[in-house]
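Reading a protein record of the kind used here takes only a little practice. To see the layout at work, look at the sequence and tokens printed below.
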Amino acid sequence: MADLKQLARRIFHETLAAIDIPATMQRKLWRTGTQLHCDGAIFDLRNFEKLRVVAIGKAAHAMVDGLALVLMPFVRFEGVVSAPTAARRPLPGVKYFAAGHPMPNEESWKAAEAILALLRGCDEKTLVFFLLSGGGSALVELPLDSRLTLEDVRQLNHALVTCGAPIEEINTVRKHVSAVKGGRLAVAANHATKITLAVSDVPAGKESALASGPTLPDPTTVADAKRVLEEYSLREKLPAILRRRFDEGKIPETPKAEALAFQNAHFMLLLGMDDLFHPAHHAAEAKGFIACCDNSTDDWPVEKAAGYLLDQLEELRRTHRGQRVALIADGEVSSPVTGDGIGGRNSAFVLACVEKIAEKKIAVLSAGTDGLDGNSPGAGAVADGETLEMARAIGLDPGDAFRRSDAFTFFSRFEDVIVTGPTGNNLRDLRILIAEP
């Protein structure tokens, strides 16, 4: 069954190769002379005296490079880029910050200050590009309450990312305590023309959760944020200053759709769910699998998602007897941290499948398209029907590893971790379940 694991790996890597951000940027955003075409709208660059670029997220470098290919050499811009890695080819006029993820660091704070300073100089003759991708919530951060320290912000983020809440609920809280989230960057460039281009790692229709929605109207409220704190028992984990502000009703509401800042603002999804499914589906079919896509398990608890998707795979096998089948799924499963091990939601998902697929001609892969999985150096893991037997032969218990949040360590023993390094992209997590008759 080693071949099945290899096939799953190849489908994943071919999918990554097909998601090229600069090429997509040039396909969906193009220029004829001074006319810039964007999602059906046309902007005449002669109408603007200043061009500004703010890029936030794991795909920030690729997005800036793609935009530069569209605009240069005829147009130069000033900008700020905050990403988890340093730029390989820095552009003139652009300030770069190697910020923290999943926890904000000093560079995250400095990046937020630099972005706000850049936007303060914007007026009606300014065109601002906001290039957003996943991870932006940690990579740029500055609290609304100036009394909060970086350590306070890190304390809040740790509580949020380890509580098991879906990303939109995590970001509901973040938006209401941040000076740069929940539409507040749009307000900072109030009178400028704003174009937001997004590489999304959030569910379709919930784009305001991407990077905590710094340029979009916020559909959530302070009451929603308080509900999240209550539901996930987070109140006592908040910094004392923040806890008092919530208790005293002093958390201000985020900007809503009727605000002036959004009257001259435009949003375009550069890459989303379909852009991930299509190449994965094609890669699976090219290897002789009858493939089906499923996005119904987004935000499900990891064990429930594992059981459901494996049931779907078995249904595919029954429907297409005697043939290879593949189930492609995306989204983020909920995997609360319950131990002090090494791993993340992707390797945890595969670990949850190990006993269920034992002795079956099935392989399961789950990995982040950003190349990251929790606190591990990997993107995810892959397993097959022989994994359980191999684990028991060396005294490993998948259930114990799962409880200790130690999936990466478990799969490292078999060289079944997926390690890509940061990919410079960040669509959703990808799960590939394949089976032979």
Observations:
- The two ends are 12 Å apart (CA to CA).
- The chain is about 35% helix and 20% strand.
